[in-house]
Amino acid sequence: MPGLFVALSGGETVFGRPFCAEYTLEKEGFGDLLLTVVHPLHLQLLSENDCNNVTVLNDFKYKSIDSELVGVVGCDPWLLKTNSVFVTWHFINGVKEELHYEIVSVPLNDVEGLNSSAITRTSSYFYGKLIARLALIAEEVCFLDVIPKVKKYLKEIIEPWLDGAIKENGFLYDQEWRVVVTKQGCSDSSYDFGSEFYTSRLYHLRYFLDGIVILVNIDPCWGKKYKCRAYSLMQEFMNLSTCSNPNYTHLRCFDLYKFHSWAGGLKEFEKGRYQKGTSEAVIAYYSARLIGLEYGDANVVTTGPTLTALLSIRAQMWWHVREAMNMREENFRPGFWC
């Protein structure tokens, strides 16, 4: 009968166009109207021009931790559009030539001190953070003399992890949960920030991806050799299709309703699913985009910056709360952190 509501039973999210997320909704029932509730960011991003007969029910509201949810009728599919985020190898506006020497002097000193044998940490998180981005800086300011040494250093510290040659630690694949863990994390639940419980996936792997994609950029032959392993690390948190790659879950950490990448795994946390490290999550998808650029993967090139844009705008709305926004009750407004 016309006018009856139908129930939402499922759906699918497609990132077919840059900076767009299209939600195809599955319905149950005999009516012709689908009632859903959306949060303020949905309303901000919802493109009424691409949704048929959208009606916002301003009097149909539900209080939640993410501010008031508002009823929406007739939007199927949802098409959410966000502003573009330019993710490229080089600084968009360039670097002033008079600043080149000052910029180069710092990485030059760092390069002189590069010594892979001096690294004593075996934690995947801290080891990954030691992988420098000096090659990018050098290329940006046309100081190419340092790149061979950076290339040698990156190979020496990345290859043992990809080859499984780190005696004290290393990456392992857990078939039950379809996730990459570390050897030390499996033997000690407190090691690698809870790798055994699949905690903080993005923050461990993104640093390795940073180094890997730089090495792929300056040594394509090396990139071809290690492509499968580089993709395995990237798809651990940014698998776009479980049909083409059933080894990992779909977008493991990314919440397609709240637009947040959760750090929590199986372990319970006092404050829910462990919201932290938005900046590290943003850089993880940034690195994934660069991986896509290097290997000519159009899907990754499109989806990486889209997730980056959604994460960024979410952080601005719910983490960087301005006094005038009135999104929270008075006693919840102070003390937000990111």
Automatic annotation (TrEMBL):
- Which major enzyme category is it? hydrolase
Superkingdom per UniProt:
Eukaryota
Which Enzyme Commission number(s) are on file for it? 3.2.1.39
Q: Which reaction does it catalyse?
A: Hydrolysis of (1->3)-beta-D-glucosidic linkages in (1->3)-beta-D-glucans
Ordered alphabetically, the record's keywords are:
Carbohydrate metabolism, Cell wall biogenesis/degradation, Glycosidase, Hydrolase, Polysaccharide degradation
Residue ranges annotated for the Glycosyl hydrolase family 81 C-terminal domain, each copy included: 96-333
Q: Biological process GO terms, please?
A: cell wall organization; polysaccharide catabolic process
Q: Which GO terms describe its molecular function?
A: endo-1,3(4)-beta-glucanase activity; glucan endo-1,3-beta-D-glucosidase activity
Family to which the UniProt record says this protein belongs: Belongs to the glycosyl hydrolase 81 family.
Q: What is this protein called?
A: glucan endo-1,3-beta-D-glucosidase
Q: Which organism is it from?
A: Medicago truncatula (Barrel medic)
